[in-house]
Write a structure and sequence with these properties.
It is a single chain. With 469 residues, the chain is an all-beta fold. Among the domains are: 90 residues, 3 Solenoid (UDP N-Acetylglucosamine Acyltransferase, domain 1), CATH 2.160.10; 104 residues. Helices cover 0% and strands 40% of the residues. The chain is built from no helices and 51 strands. It has an 18-stranded parallel sheet, with no helix packed on it. Strands 5-7-9-11-13-15-17-19-21 form a nine-stranded parallel sheet, with no helix packed on it. Strand 3 and strand 4 form a beta hairpin.
Length: 469
């Protein structure tokens, strides 16, 4: 082919898609053409410095410095700066927030209708937070962020954030965040509404209080009238108050107070005005107005159920239908159907139905050295040792036992000197009852006498070992 000026070359008449060669060979002859039209798959959109695909006639872009690349039916109607859509189907950016800079990558029917610097990635989701910024949704089948800034949803289905700021949902199905700085990880139909509350896994769990956490389980609730509470596992557990916890179990309720805990069990209640108390296992137990108290492995047992008194340091173990009130630093073991109303002198007491002791047992002994009137309280003194060296030791049962068959008392008499006198006072309401006369003592010997309360106010001799050298 002879030399031809470019202006004299024939124009290319093929389609724009074929505009890729400057020199073509036709039937063994070299032909040269001049070109017109676009060789790029992109063209300018309707907005200033915006671009859209050449061959996607359904794409629309009127934004400032906005970009649509690939995909089908994607539109940018926002007039703000630097919005972009890359791929996907029927995605749209219509937010006219002044921050602009919204991005959609992939996905289907995703939309950013409000807010700026937001992103939706391979999701069918909506960001509509008016005035919000830096919100993100990624890999969600259906999801939405309706309010706030710096919120994120990653994975899952039917996820919603309507909090003010800094919310996060990771995975799961149909989870919701409505509080500030909240999180939801996994699970289904969970709602975190308390400020800085978190729900992890489980079904229909709802931490509503400040700085509260629900982990696993189902239908667990932390009420909004408290803070720093935890529910872990279980079903239909409810926590209120401050710094309270429920671990596992079913239908347990900490309804108030501070530093209280329920572990396991069913339908246990730790109610208002209790502090630093615990219920472990069992069912249908109620602990109210207790401080440092506990109910362990019991059923239908209570502390201060009438609400008139308090308990402090009281522990109930394996009790059934038993109530203790107005008591301090006491223990109830294996009681059934008992009602214990404490009072003056009843503190530091252990209540037990039956007691079986294996091996050696040590008892606290009251030691008396000085002569005079010696009041013996058989409720509090199991062993009394008298070192009689001189003078009169007048033994009085005070207060009266008034309980048949219990308790028992052991007297240890160390008769040191013949100048000492030991008398058993019967002038009061309680009498000393002897099986073989009033005991007498020999100088320099030891005697052991055992008695028990019997027949109303009196104490009766069980055994004696006299004047042992």
């Amino acid at each position: 082919m002879a030399n031809v000026k470019i202006s004299a070359l024939p124009s290319w008449t093929g389609s724009p898609v074929d505009l890729r060669w400057f020199v073509m060979n036709n039937s063994g002859e070299t032909e040269t053409f001049k070109f017109s039209g676009f060789t790029s798959p992109l063209k300018y959109g309707d907005g200033t410095n915006s671009i859209v695909p050449v061959y996607n006639t359904s794409a629309s872009n009127v934004g400032l410095r906005a970009t649509i690349v690939g995909g089908v039916g994607n539109t940018i109607t926002s007039t703000q700066d630097s919005n972009s859509i890359f791929g996907g189907n029927s995605n749209s950016i219509s937010s006219n927030d002044a921050n602009g800079a919204n991005t959609i990558v992939g996905g289907f029917s995703a939309g950013i209708t409000n807010g700026g610097a937001a992103g939706i990635y391979t999701a069918s989701a909506t960001i509509s937070s008016a005035g919000g910024i830096y919100n993100t949704i990624m890999g969600v089948q259906v999801g939405s962020i309706t309010t706030g800034s710096r919120n994120a949803i990653v994975g899952g289905n039917y996820q919603t954030i309507s909090s003010n700021n800094n919310g996060f949902i990771g995975g799961g199905n149909n989870n919701t965040i409505t509080g500030d700085n909240c999180g939801s990880i996994g699970g289904q139909q969970n709602t975190a509404s308390g400020t800085r509350s978190v729900v992890i896994g489980g079904f229909n769990n709802r931490p509503s209080g400040l700085d509260t956490v629900v982990v696993g389980g189902q239908n667990n609730l932390i009420n909004s009238n408290g803070a720093y509470n935890v529910v872990a596992g279980g079903e239909q557990n409810t926590a209120s108050g401050d710094i309270n916890s429920i671990f596992n179990g079913r239908s347990n309720n900490v309804s108030g107070g501070i530093d209280n805990t329920i572990i396991g069990g069913n339908s246990n209640t730790l109610s208002t005005n209790s502090s630093r108390s615990i219920v472990i296992g069992g069912r249908e137990n109620v602990l109210t107005r207790g401080d440092n108290c506990s109910i362990i492995g019991s059923r239908a047992s209570t502390q201060n159920i009438g609400g008139l008194y308090n308990t402090s340091g009281v522990t109930m173990v394996s009790c059934i239908a038993t109530d203790i009130t107005n008591a301090n630093h006491s223990v109830a073991l294996g009681l059934s159907g008992r009602t214990i109303v404490g009072g003056t002198g009843d503190d530091n007491t252990t209540y037990v139905e039956k007691l079986y002791i294996y091996g050696n047992t040590r008892y606290e002994t009251t030691i008396v050295n000085d002569p005079g009137t010696i009041n013996i309280n058989v409720f509090e003194q199991s062993h009394v040792e008298i070192n009689a060296s001189g003078g009169t030791y007048d033994l009085v049962i005070n207060p009266s036992p008034s309980t048949e068959g219990t308790p028992e008392l052991t007297l240890l008499i160390n008769y040191i000197s013949s100048g000492a006198t030991i008398t058993f006072n019967n002038s009061g309401s309680s009498q000393w009852r002897w099986s073989s006369g009033t005991p007498s003592f020999t100088s320099g010997t030891r005697s052991i006498i055992k008695v028990a309360a019997w027949d109303t106010n009196d104490v009766w001799e069980i055994s004696r070992s006299m004047n042992m050298s």
